[in-house]
Amino acid sequence: GGPRRLLLVSNSTLHGGGYLGHCQQHIKNFLGEQVKRVLFVPYALHDRDAYARTAREKFESLGYGLDSIHESCDPVEAVRKSEAIFIGGGNTFRLLKALYDNSLIQEIRKRVLEDGIPYMGSSAGTNVATISINTTNDMPIVYPPSLQALGLVPFNINPHYLDPDVKSTHMGETREERIRQYHEEPNTPPVLGLREGAMLLVEGDKATLQGVTGARLFLRGKKPTEHEPGTDFSFLLIDSNLQNL
């Protein structure tokens, strides 16, 4: 066993760079030398073979072997034997439905929270690491049995968080307005808006904002607050009603 270890990345590709290029050093620091092989979960995209090839190429270049769960005849057993899990981005609804369909929610929770294996997510893979996918940006193209997700942390994340463009004439809701609407519902947890280029490192009961961009934190009934890389977000890991902060 060991404490939970999570690397929750906002996006897999940053403008001007290749797949996971902006966070590859973070990945190496996170997985270290103990991990030899990573179990990849490509369920968020339709073409799982192509997705696995992209991920395999990247991880092999960093010195890690990669097995894709969709190539396993027994996904549950693959999770049970895994040294580390990486869930990639795509459509969050499609991803969560596949996790339920393959009976992987409890298995992944156990491996990460009880056995202490490293979990990395990017985009949709970060969404499903949280309490629920209520704050995803994706369209509900399929219908998972629940919006409840892996619950590896007791709050929600909004990856690819976008600030309003002051020059835009677009009159639709901003990301901030949508998160505020979520918080109009009772008993809704905090939402951490991770901008592209940002990631959250969780080690046991410590959570730290990393990367090159900041994050915006939304607490129900409070004004959102702005945070720079290096911010200690450990208080978000206290599994209690944070609305009273």
UniProtKB/TrEMBL annotation:
Subcellular location: Cytoplasm
Database matches in InterPro entries: Class_I_gatase-like, Peptidase_S51
Statement: the UniProt record of this protein carries the keyword ATP-binding: no
GO cellular component: a single term: cytoplasm
BP GO annotations: proteolysis
Function: Hydrolyzes dipeptides containing N-terminal aspartate residues.
Protein name (database record): dipeptidase E
Gene designation per UniProt: Aada
